[in-house]
Design a protein that fits this description.
By secondary structure, this protein is an alpha/beta fold. The protein contains 8 helices and 8 strands; from the N terminus they run αβαβαβαββααβαββα. The chain starts with a helix and ends with a helix. The relative contact order is 0.18.
């Protein structure tokens, strides 16, 4: 038993990438591969900084992090914006560095989601998708911040914050329950997985 406890380790991941399908695949595959290879990981600590990305993959990441059996900790290393927020909120322990910030806003989709020639049905379909994604993200924020801070964000307040494009400072994030505390992490000298946009660009797909 003592030997098993000693063999357990904390895996650090630095993630400063845009949230895309490739980013989701790399993140989830790394953790799944560690489980399949029998590595005795007791905790995943993710140092996250992202300007956002695709909201659908962000929700996937949120649910993935919620499902893994290990202890999970995340640091906002400066900026967690847009689609990065639900991903961040999936972790058990949530910490922000001094002067970090969060930004939430209404979901946006690239113009390429519409065909070159489109009609009212196409527009209504995209409108429905945007509203459904907003609703899902807002409910994640409500659920994961409830009871965590000094002040509760109800669904009405979250929806208003989305409409106004709202930034929360570290102090505000702690007050409203996005983070548990403000603290600077210390990365180990080795063994850190770095997921960056530059690294992802070198991978096929």
């Amino acid at each position: 038993m003592d030997e098993q406890i000693q063999q357990k380790k904390i895996q650090y991941i630095w993630c400063s990438a845009t949230i895309t399908k490739k980013m989701e695949d790399v993140f989830t595959a790394f953790i799944n591969n560690q489980a399949q290879s029998g590595q005795n990981i007791s905790e995943y600590v993710v140092c996250l900084s992202t300007l956002g990305g695709n909201p659908f993959y962000a929700v996937n990441l949120y649910n993935f992090v919620k499902s893994i059996p290990q202890k999970t900790t995340v640091y906002n290393m400066g900026s967690v914006f847009s689609a990065g927020v639900p991903f961040f909120l999936g972790f058990q322990n949530r910490i922000g560095v001094p002067d970090c910030s969060f930004l939430i806003h209404q979901t946006t989709l690239p113009r390429t989601t519409l065909p070159e020639q489109f009609n009212l049905v196409d527009l209504e379909t995209q409108k429905t998708t945007l509203l459904a994604t907003d609703d899902k993200t807002q409910k994640i924020i409500q659920k994961e911040t409830a009871g965590k801070g000094q002040k509760t964000l109800n669904l009405s307040a979250i929806r208003k914050a989305f409409q106004n494009t709202t930034t929360y400072t570290a102090t505000e994030a702690q007050k409203f329950g996005f983070i548990d505390k403000v603290e600077q992490p210390k990365l180990p000298e080795s063994g850190v997985l770095y997921i960056t946009d530059q690294y992802l660009a070198t991978l096929p797909g």
